[in-house]
């Protein structure tokens, strides 16, 4: 009986076990299926390079930043936004094997995103040094396709990383003094708000970038005062604005430039000449007087038909979209009247237009022994005299010198028929006025003489000193009996020197100012293109270091071409070889 009971107990136990096993079989299947979809561990080994033109900020090598992998670095691997793990270079060098363990669901033809040094990155709080960029802000990515999965080993093709920012070396200079700026902070922004401040969850956050607390430590690390390194992303054919605050003085400096591109993966060296922000005056509110420079810079802006600018001896002014037209005004002044030494800056990206009352220059220079200096780059200055030079003298008197270092300048000595005056130089005809030396070191300059006046030089019956052209793109048109560069009718010009550093000089004699109307049967020209006008005199002409140069001279550095128009007017075109 006990045996029977035992047999029954055994059968019961077996039956229960079978029931349990049957009940669990579906659950086991689920467990197996779940395990098959869980992340798996893989090993990825891939050869990677940072490319030939890169911006990894380790050290400078000429104009390019050298780049190498370091075994201490990590490269993040993601798939469709999910983090799979990290890789590390197995050796130092420009090309290295990246190797590491990944955890995830990875299949053949999957695209993996490799990011150095991290998925999220912020460009904020840079300190302006290369070392800081190397440690915190270098950012490069690569996308690879999984070509094979063998067990736990993943195979991908070799890959080259693409840097996702440019590195810019800004050399900051005071545009007025030329000295480096001992900056405390620098802010860069774009008008389209395109500069990337940070990457968060793979998405760019845009806005201005600011670097603060620049100091002697920064300058020591960078090799000089005013040198700032920035990692920038998102600047493509954009208009950018720089604001720089100087240490100790707290003077603000301002710079605007259009069509700027900093291509990701490249290194740039940019010298920025910044204008100091100071007091802004509006010519529309009344006459403006600029005192002798005492550390305060004055900007002038606005438009008027009655008011003018007076520059005291030693004054400095910055023109920012100024328009002064005094032709019909009761004001008997030049739009800009210089009482002594004066410096004019044409603010970059602005257009400034000056038109004088009769008997005045567009910009009237100071007395003999004083100098007007004009500086600019992309800013435009259009200036017209009325029985006076575009830039130079008006009525009789002994006037000073003119130095032009740059800018886009269009200077005319006449706006109506029989208005006398050189484009740059002497003013009203037969007024016993003298102009000092004229020196042009650069810029894009077009100078049109008024009636009987040279483009650059003297007017009819007036005198100017030496004309020295060291650089720039120069176009000078004399008007009826006047040289293109030199003297007007019966006028005098000193020595004329054209150096080998020019881009080009184009001079035409006898051309009729487009604003003037004369008899088309006027006799053909028979006077100098560069030199003396009809019945005028000149000093020594030197071109490319050849004294008493002619079109036949063996110029070493310059090309020389002569052409004539239908009225037999000569044009000399001199260009750098």
The main β sheet shows up as: 19 strands, mixed
The end-to-end span amounts to 126 Å
What is the residue-mean pLDDT, rounded to a whole number? 84
Number of structurally distinct domains: 3
Strand content: over 45%
Shape: elongated
Please tell me about this protein's structure.
- The chain has 577 residues and is mainly β.
- It folds into three domains: 40-163; 166-275, Immunoglobulin-like (Sandwich), CATH 2.60.40.2630; 310-576.
- The protein is 9% helix and 45% strand.
- The chain is built from three helices and 54 strands.
- The protein has a 19-stranded mixed beta sheet that branches. It has a nine-stranded parallel beta sheet with strand order 23-25-27-30-33-37-41-45-49, with no helix packed on it.
- The protein is elongated.
- The model is unreliable at 1-37, 53-65 and 516-520 (pLDDT under 50).
How are the SSEs placed, and which strands pair?
Layout: H1 2-37, E1 40-49, E2 59-61, E3 64-66, E4 75-79, E5 82-89, E6 95-104, E7 111-116, E8 121-122, H2 130-137, E9 140-150, E10 153-156, E11 159-160, E12 162-163, E13 166-174, E14 183-190, E15 196-200, E16 203-206, E17 209-211, H3 216-222, E18 227-232, E19 235-246, E20 252-262, E21 267-277, E22 279-282, E23 288-290, E24 298-304, E25 309-311, E26 315-325, E27 336-338, E28 342-346, E29 351-355, E30 363-364, E31 371-376, E32 380-384, E33 391-392, E34 397-398, E35 401-404, E36 408-412, E37 424-425, E38 433-435, E39 438-440, E40 444-448, E41 456-457, E42 463-464, E43 467-469, E44 473-477, E45 485-486, E46 492-493, E47 496-498, E48 504-508, E49 530-531, E50 537-538, E51 541-543, E52 546-547, E53 558-564, E54 570-576
Parallel strand pairs: 1-10, 1-11, 13-21, 22-24, 23-25, 24-26, 25-27, 26-28, 26-29, 27-30, 28-31, 29-32, 30-33, 31-35, 32-36, 33-37, 34-38, 35-39, 36-40, 37-41, 38-42, 39-43, 40-44, 41-45, 42-46, 43-47, 44-48, 45-49, 46-50, 47-51
Antiparallel strand pairs: 1-6, 2-3, 4-5, 4-7, 5-6, 7-9, 8-15, 9-10, 9-12, 13-18, 14-17, 14-19, 15-16, 19-20, 20-21, 48-54, 51-52, 53-54
């Amino acid at each position: 009986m006990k045996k029977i009971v035992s047999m029954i107990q055994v059968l019961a136990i077996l039956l229960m076990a079978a029931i349990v096993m049957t009940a669990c079989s579906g659950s086991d299947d689920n467990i197996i299926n779940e395990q098959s979809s869980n992340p798996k561990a893989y090993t990825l080994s891939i050869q990677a390079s940072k490319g030939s033109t890169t911006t990894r900020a380790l050290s400078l090598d000429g104009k390019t930043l050298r780049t190498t992998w370091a075994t201490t670095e990590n490269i993040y691997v993601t798939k469709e936004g999910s983090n799979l793990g990290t890789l590390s270079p197995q050796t130092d060098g420009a090309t290295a094997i990246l190797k590491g363990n990944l955890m995830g669901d990875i299949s053949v033809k999957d695209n993996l995103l490799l990011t150095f040094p991290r998925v999220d990155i912020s460009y904020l709080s840079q300190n302006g040094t290369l070392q800081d960029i190397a440690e915190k802000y270098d950012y490069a990515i690569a996308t690879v396709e999984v070509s094979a999965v063998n067990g736990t080993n993943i195979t991908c093709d070799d890959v080259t990383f693409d840097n996702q920012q440019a590195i810019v070396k800004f050399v900051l200079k005071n545009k007025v003094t030329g000295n480096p700026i001992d900056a405390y902070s620098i802010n860069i922004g774009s008008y389209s708000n395109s500069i990337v401040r940070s990457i968060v969850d793979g998405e760019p956050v845009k806005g201005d970038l600011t670097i603060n607390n620049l100091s002697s430590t920064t300058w020591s690390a960078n090799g000089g005062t005013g040198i700032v390194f920035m990692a920038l992303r998102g600047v493509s054919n954009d208009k950018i604005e720089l604001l720089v605050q100087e240490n100790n003085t707290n003077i603000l400096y301002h710079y605007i430039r259009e069509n700027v591109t900093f291509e990701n993966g490249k290194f740039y060296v940019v010298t920025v000449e910044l204008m100091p922000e100071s007091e802004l005056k509006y010519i529309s509110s009344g006459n403006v007087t600029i005192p002798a420079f005492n550390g305060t810079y004055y900007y002038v802006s606005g438009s008027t038909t009655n008011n003018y600018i007076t520059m005291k001896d030693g004054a400095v002014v910055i023109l920012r979209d100024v328009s002064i037209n005094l032709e019909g005004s009761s004001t008997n002044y030049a739009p800009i009247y210089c009482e002594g030494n004066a410096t004019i800056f044409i603010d970059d990206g602005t257009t400034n237009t000056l038109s004088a009352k009769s008997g005045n220059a567009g910009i009237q220079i100071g007395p003999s022994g004083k100098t007007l200096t004009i500086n600019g780059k992309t800013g435009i200055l259009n200036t017209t005299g009325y029985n006076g030079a575009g830039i130079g003298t008006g009525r009789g008197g002994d006037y000073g010198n003119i130095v032009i270092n740059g800018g886009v300048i269009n200077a005319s000595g006449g706006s109506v028929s029989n208005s006398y005056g050189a484009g740059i130089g002497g003013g009203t005809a037969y007024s016993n006025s003298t102009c000092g030396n004229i020196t042009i070191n650069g810029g894009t300059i077009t100078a049109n003489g008024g009636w009987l006046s040279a483009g650059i030089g003297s007017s009819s019956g007036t005198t100017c000193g030496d004309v020295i052209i060291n650089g720039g793109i120069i176009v000078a048109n004399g008007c009826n009996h006047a040289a293109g560069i030199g003297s007007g009718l019966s006028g005098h010009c000193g020595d004329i020197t054209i150096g080998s550093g020019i881009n080009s000089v184009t001079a035409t004699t006898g051309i009729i100012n487009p604003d003037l109307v004369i008899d088309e049967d006027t006799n053909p020209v028979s006077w100098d293109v560069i030199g003396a006008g009809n019945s005028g005199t000149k000093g020594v002409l030197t071109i490319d270091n050849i004294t008493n140069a002619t079109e036949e001279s063996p110029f070493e550095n310059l090309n020389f071409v002569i052409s004539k128009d239908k009225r037999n007017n000569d044009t000399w075109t001199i260009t750098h070889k």
